[in-house]
Design brief:
It comes from Paracoccus mangrovi. With about 260 residues, this protein is an alpha/beta fold. About 35% of the residues lie in helices and about 15% in strands.
């Protein structure tokens, strides 16, 4: 992919950390590497203007996103709105908090018996298979990125082949594909995190080389103008010969699209 980047780098929004990210891409190209980027977007349930905006942005930069869809709330008209290159992952069951007062929010935590939680997840997986037969991959995204170990242990038995959280889950018998970058300041402004910090994280991830995919986590329903602008800048800068955007099933060989045999 070839796209002029000088206008972005020389804009008033430019920063040393953004230029450090671009330099890391240039160094990767000099080494003959192709850095893999991937995008996970959470909480999809229905067609919407923000989802359409995300898909248009992805289409313009060759990005195949994986949408974490909430099974209990997914509408049948979502599937026809998705291009063929979009993947769908399972985002829990109903994205309902079962934690008690003072506990961090979680749907798949230890508050309920693991067999009950796994039964809901199996029901959700079956529903997604029916709604998205051409988009679904057997990837579970726990709501709030939290899941009890005993629930994790039962995932292969219901047909889940891989897990994607965000920092809170680091060990599992299943293949684990966690994004490293979340641009939203959830515990503060709920707008864009400090941009220099985000660009610095991207630069560090790019400097690690092509072995580790670089994942970005988004929530299309929660984006404001600053978050949309950051995401577009990331995609513009990664229109670079050292970069390629991939889907989770390109990263994890056993993660296949479609229904099980």
């Amino acid at each position: 992919m070839n796209s002029p980047l000088n206008s972005s780098l020389n804009s008033p929004l430019s920063s040393p950390m953004k230029q450090a990210f671009r330099a890391a891409l240039d160094h990767a190209h000099d080494r003959g590497e192709r850095l893999r980027f991937w995008l996970r977007d959470d909480d999809a349930t229905e067609p919407s203007a923000p989802l359409e905006r995300l898909l248009d942005l992805c289409a313009g930069h060759g990005v195949p996103p994986v949408l974490a869809v909430i099974p209990a709330r997914a509408r049948a008209d979502l599937a026809p709105a998705l291009p063929a290159w979009v993947r769908v992952a399972q985002h829990g069951w109903a994205h309902q908090n079962h934690a008690g007062p003072g506990e961090k929010m979680q749907e798949l935590g230890p508050q309920r018996p693991a067999p009950q939680v796994l039964s809901e997840l199996a029901q959700g997986l079956d529903r997604l298979r029916g709604l998205f037969p051409d988009h679904l991959i057997e990837l579970l995204v726990p709501p709030w990125n939290r899941i009890a170990p005993e629930v994790m242990d039962g995932l292969p038995g219901i047909g889940i082949r891989a897990l994607s959280a965000y920092g809170k889950v680091t060990t599992t018998a299943l293949p684990l594909l966690n994004p490293q970058i979340d641009p939203i300041d959830w515990h503060g402004s709920r707008s864009l995190h400090d941009a220099d910090r985000l660009w610095h994280k991207l630069a560090l991830a790019a400097a690690q080389g092509e072995e580790r995919p670089i994942g970005i986590l988004t929530h299309h329903l929660d984006h404001d103008a600053a978050i949309w602008a950051f995401l577009e800048e990331v995609m513009t800068l990664t229109d670079h010969p050292a970069c390629r955007w991939v889907a989770p099933d390109d990263i994890i060989p056993g993660l296949i699209t479609g229904s099980p045999d």
